[in-house]
Amino acid sequence: MADHASANPNPGRIIALLNQKGGVGKTTTTVNLGAALAKAGKRVCLLDLDPQAHLTLHLGIDLAETESPRSMYDILVDPDCTAESATINIQPQLDAIPSEVDLAAAETELSSHPDRQRILLHKMQPVVDQYDYVLIDCPPSLGLLTLNALSLAREVFVPMQAHFLALQGVGKLLQTVGLVCQSVNTSLRVTGIILCMHEGQTTLAKEVVADLDDFFTQARDQNVPWRDCQVFLPAIRRNIKLAEAPSFGQTIFDYASNCAGAQDYKALAKHISSTSSNINDATTSDGKLPEVEITTSMSSTTVEDEPALASSPPAAPADVTDGNVT
Ligand SMILES: Nc1ncnc2c1ncn2[C@@H]1O[C@H](COP(=O)(O)OP(=O)(O)OP(=O)(O)O)[C@@H](O)[C@H]1O
Ligand SMILES: [Mg+2]
Asked: Which residues contact ligand 1 via a Cβ below 6 A?
């Protein structure tokens, strides 16, 4: 098992932006948090690991016009394609590795690869030390692409909306990360929740945030990979400029640098820079994970009892076998 967390005494942070629920703000956060960190002087690389290629579109990358049109698909499928050859410089301090829809085929093409869940880790290892932050935009599913992200990452940030049903999804997500921790990446930790499209004045949002705070406070005493997780502040307010920026192929700082969305992501980047990655030795690799239960002031649900959400992609895995999420 590759244990890259110990390879460098002062490593950068490698963070997967993960939520199996679609449309919660993963891509918007990856792009604009990354851009804010780069503006603050950090060296940042954004990885598009979603076949929807929304991060690539958001950054205004047209692969057909690039000199060497290599993408995430090539990195995963072509043994000779290096991460460096697929890296595009977007602006000072900000690089990206783009994707295209063909990335969807990689999951099938790699199904018989003996080390299929760690290809991204091996390809990125020569370059990660060049960056202070590597941010990985994950697809809204828990298949092989996501598993590659979780093998490379040291941390998971969970973008979410403060809705009641979202709490159930977060419980399932934590359980999934716990399973990955026990198999392919014992260093992995869930370190932050990012509240997106936040409407903080509503009673519902306040209750959900209070429930999350209670849940993570209780987890501090447990031997689980989310024991150091915090609900990051500030929350990202709902702001129409953030929804408009992708169609111009621009980050929020290039599109509307003074809007509320730009202010929120700038403040969030400052807060995240002030936190450590909270990597500790609280491994759960040989212990049994507790059942993840987020008790809400409105009702109580457990992961195992959770009904599939109508709007969600396929249910989270019940097990990780052969290094693959099943
Ligand atoms: N704070 C915000 N205010 C307004 N609109 C937002 C905000 N954050 C994201 N959006 C919009 O919400 C939609 C979903 O956001 P985004 O694409 O970032 O979610 P996602 O989790 O990456 O989705 P997917 O699961 O499909 O990859 C997009 O149209 C985006 O522009
Ligand atoms: Mg997305």
From this structure: 22-28, 50, 52, 54, 140, 196-197, 236, 238-239, 242-243, 246, 261
Spacing, Cα 81 to ligand 1 middle (Å): 31
**Residue range 12-325 in CATH 3.40.50.300:** yes
CA of 237, closest atom in ligand 1: 1
Write out pLDDT tens, residues 186-210.
Answer: 999 999 999 999 999 999 999 999 9
Average pLDDT over residues 78-90: 96
Domain spans in the chain, listed from the N-terminal domain onward: 12-325
Cβ atoms of residues 51 and 186 within 8 Å: no
Given this model, what pLDDT does residue 322 score? Answer: 38
Name the residue with the closest Cα to ligand 1, atom 3: 238
Q: Which of 183, 190, 91, 75 is nearest to 124 (CA)?
A: 75
* Residue 301: per-residue pLDDT: 38
- Ligand nearest, relative to CA of residue 245: 1
